[in-house]
Amino acid sequence: MTLKNFFKFLSLGLILGISQSFLFCIPLIIFVYYLFLKKVYKMTSYKHGFFCSWLFGTGFFVGSMHWMISPFLIYEKHFYLIPLGALIFPILMGVFFIFPVCLIIFFEKNLLLMKNKIFLRSFVVSLFFLFSEILRSKLFGGLPLNLTGHIWAFNSEFIQIVKVFGIFGLSFLTILWIILSVNLLIHLRLKTFLVSIFCFPLILISFNLINYEYKEINDEKAFLRVVQPNVPQKEKWNKVFFEKNFEKLIALTLDGNQQEVTKIVVWPEVALTFYLNEEKDFLNYLKKKIPKNVILITGSLRRIIEDGSVKIFNSLYVIKEGKFVFYDKKKLVPFGEFIPFRSFSEFLKLTPGSTDFSVGKQSNQIEVQLESKKIIFEPSICYEAIFQTFSSEKNQFIINITNDAWFGKTTGPRQHLSAQIFRAVEKSIPLVRSANSGISVITNQNGKIIKSIDLNKSGFIELNLSLKRNKTFFESYGNFSNLILILLVFFLFYLIDIFYQLKVNVKSKTLI
């Protein structure tokens, strides 16, 4: 491979990665895929395709997840891990782009008859890229960040189709739209290209007009306050600053409090930096500080001794008058909360302490008594909310607590939030998110942000949140719905290609 090609594929991936977070960059995304696929379609060597796609993928993850180095810049003892985020991570993740490209080369070599069937060809190539996204979302714990469908996250009118087909369905349709547009450009079918460009957004918007939901359950409300203290990461675990940070949380909780209104107040992940289940005196003190009308939800740690060994959990606590229930985090962050292959490495864990966190086992459901009624919410901690969850339980909203202060002013917090929004839309329930440094939000059941606190600001937002909930098609059928979608698209594109072929044949006969 020449040096020119090296930088070309790396740069294309880099541009695609940077563009992934912004809807207005879609024309640039289509242009990048145009240049990339035009080269790929001409490749005959698997070796050449292997390295070109790997470079492209490496560039993509450097561009889209450059913020991975931020956690290593906070404490001096972690500086030596900077190459892990800056180079090793994107190089390893870049492997996922090898699969679709090598499959395309195989397809081009062995299925020559489909070269003139633009729609079916686009369908097959799109399946390859979808397969790549599903693989990286599932393998080795998974990382479903920066999926193609995430680009629509902050435009709720475009994402209601997720209630039917989930995020992977939206990703597939978006990839299909991009690939089809590219193939039409390559074959100079400009009229069809223009139709394709404008039709897809209209199809997405049309799902706002069709009610795919059914089985209305209730129309209850809950008054919520979301607190964002904006505690600097360097101060968060320093005991010297604990009292100051705690008083800030209390002040934001009590500001303008109306004691006749029962409310849920949400603090961020590990807002209390100790083992709360062991601190009876502190719970009694908290009982005095927090008014009786407040149900407090906060992040803290939990420690137990089980089978002779100490287990530590990153937990969410629901506290009412000194009594609590808890939920332990299930999806742990590699190198943040546990060290993969610890017996083979001496890497430091980013969070304080040398012991790995343990995986929680509770169900994703907590019941809260709110005045005379019971409400049920789905708890999630930090990045586990980017993963799809399936449950028969009738959760009425999602509460996510997180600490994105690790990622500073980068696009990391924005990307984290964009992935979480789809959990609300898939289930048609609101998302309540408290982030230490932002972005804290309350969304409705359509994923539209109703109130928010910007990055690196302190404050609170509150809302009398409607818990009206309708069960979605996606909840009933899960990702099986994507098989239905794929079959529908296949038959549609098959018929379109037949139509085009007939049209060409009629023109040929007319000329004769």
Structure in words:
With 512 residues, this protein is an alpha/beta fold. It folds into two domains: 244 residues, no CATH class; 259 residues, Nitrilase/N-carbamoyl-D-aminoacid amidohydrolase. The chain is 43% helix and 18% strand. The protein is built from 14 helices and 15 strands. Strands 2, 3, 4, 5, 6, 7 and 14 form a seven-stranded mixed β-sheet that branches. The longest helix has 32 residues. It starts with a helix and ends with a helix. The relative contact order is 0.12. About 1% of the residues have low confidence.
Give the low-confidence spans.
Answer: 212-217
Helix content: 40-55%
In CATH terms, the superfamily of the largest domain is: Carbon-nitrogen hydrolase
Q: Report the principal-axis shape.
A: globular
**How many domains would you count in the coordinates?**
2
Order of helices and strands: HHHHHHHHEEHHEEHEEEEEEHEEEEEHH
Give the number of helices: 14
Q: What is the CATH top level name of the largest domain?
A: Alpha Beta
In this structure, how is the largest beta sheet organized?
7 strands, mixed
Number of β-strand runs: 15
Overall average pLDDT: 87
Radius of gyration: 25 Å
Q: Quote the distance from N terminus to C terminus.
A: 48 Å
> What is the CATH topology classification name of the largest domain?
Nitrilase/N-carbamoyl-D-aminoacid amidohydrolase
Structural class: alpha/beta
